[in-house]
Amino acid sequence: MAKTPVADTERRVVLGTIAGVYGVKGWIRVRSATEPRERMLGRRGDWRERALEEGRGHGGGVIAKLAGVDDRDAAAALVGAEIAVPRSRLPAGAPDEYYWVDLVGLEVVTEQGVALGRIEGLLATGANDVLVVRNGRERLIPFLRDSVIRSVDVEKGVLRVDWDPDF
């Protein structure tokens, strides 16, 4: 199967970080940023497009064997590298499902039209995700559909909220 080239300007989505080595045959430990954690297995490697030879859940994490990484020293040289895929290679979500990367940069506006700032990131708190919105000051807004999040329009770059601008 031919590889589709990726433009250097295409946005990449980080799926995890190489956190350490596993054994002596080039396997790596991966700190997954995906849910569930096994979802990242089978994706291409870092920006150098290393193919995944094998991978599986192991304990509370993920271990993987990348093509061309055949010993412990080669694996150790990758520790700290991020594993990412081009955004265009991620599957489409269901309606009203969003990748975090698609929300970052959206303008957050109240139902009354008050601009609160732009989404700089998201936090996973366990109970619900939280938007980190900044416009001179930082606001943490829970991503609660219907009660707080009224609409998301990725195409127009706007997320509407029911939120007190003074909070």
Question: Overview of this structure, please?
Answer:
The longest helix is centred in the middle third of the chain and has 5 residues. The protein is elongated, with a radius of gyration of 19 Å. Helices cover 5% and strands 41% of the residues. It has 2 domains: 77 residues, Elongation Factor Tu (Ef-tu), domain 3; 62 residues, SH3 type barrels. A hairpin with a 4-residue loop joins strand 10 and strand 11. The strands form 2 sheets. A 6-stranded mixed beta sheet has the order 9-8-7-6-11-10. It has a 5-stranded antiparallel beta sheet with strand order 3-4-2-1-5. The protein has 2 helices and 11 strands. The N terminus is likely disordered. It is mainly beta.
Task: Present the secondary structure layout.
Elements: E1 12-22, E2 27-32, E3 52-58, E4 61-66, H1 72-76, E5 82-86, H2 100-103, E6 107-110, E7 115-124, E8 129-134, E9 138-142, E10 149-153, E11 158-161
Parallel strand pairs: 6-11
Antiparallel strand pairs: 1-2, 1-5, 2-4, 3-4, 6-7, 7-8, 8-9, 10-11
Brief overview:
This protein is mainly β and 167 residues long. The chain has helices spanning 72-76, 100-103; strands at 12-22, 27-32, 52-58, 61-66, 82-86, 107-110, 115-124, 129-134, 138-142, 149-153, 158-161. It has two helices and eleven strands.
Shape: elongated
Percentage of helical residues? under 10%
Structural class: mainly beta
**CATH architecture classification name of the largest domain:** Beta Barrel
Figure out the total of helices.
Answer: 2
Question: For the record, what CATH class of the largest domain applies?
Answer: Mainly Beta
Radius of gyration: 19 Å
Look at the structure and give the mean pLDDT: 84
Give the strand line-up of the largest sheet.
9-8-7-6-11-10
Strand content: 35-45%
Unreliable parts: 1-7, 37-46
**Quaternary structure type:** single chain
| Beginning-to-end CA distance, first to last residue | 53 Å
